[in-house]
Amino acid sequence: MKRIACFLFAASLLAAFGSPVDAGPLRDDCGELIQACALEPQLIVPAAPTKSIDRESFWSAIKSMVQRREKFEHDGVKYYLGRPLLSESAKQGTEAIVDEWERLGGSDNRQLAYLLGTVYRETVSRMTPVREAFCDSTDCVVAALNKYMLKHPDRVKSNYAIANSCGRSYYGRGYSQLTGHQRYKCTGENLGWGDQLVKDPDLALEPARAAAILVQGARRGLFKRGQTLDRYFTATDADWINARKVVNPGSMDHAPITAGYAKLFFKAMGSSDSP
Question: Domain 2-18+58-268 belongs to what architecture?
Fold first, then answer.
């Protein structure tokens, strides 16, 4: 079931994301057609990082939630933060996201909590950058996706994990499961990395880069133009359900679950604001 969820997530990305373009199709260094990318406005980075949460208190609250199995329910199913969240690797992954959030001057803890809830669900509590289907190689992703397609030919039409003529494969990677040739290209260019990401997709697995992709992608609308965290979390409202459109607009059926996890993270932050 975990692999199926990943396949559906990546496939929905391919189907839902529009390509931000400024011009007609071009050819990349592999000879493949690709669109030119629009550059979204840069964030104003403060001289010094903000302090969005008290991390010691946050982890103390998370530990308490895990131990007492604090839960929420959706469609009669109970969900809670699992013990893997207390592992050292999960802590490091979470800290990398918070570091990037604070480096960029993030101040709305609802938005930060939403990102953590998203990553918690997409990585199945690992909180680390992962390959699609939790594989350790491209060959593994290709093989697993082939099996999935045999069982569900109506859901995925082609194996998008198969490498191109240059040996590059653009399946889901990282905290946000960045997927698709165009998305790798445009995200890399918007983050100031030039063609590094499109030439070496595994860079999306590096924690610092994965955090930059997640945080800037969600704040600047890099995953889908116009879909930013500010759109769903304002001074007067918090739309925890439709915020799913920021990272993955193609799987709104999972929105209540992501929202539930996000609210648990928000509670752990000890904010006095209402979720």
Answer: Orthogonal Bundle (1.10)
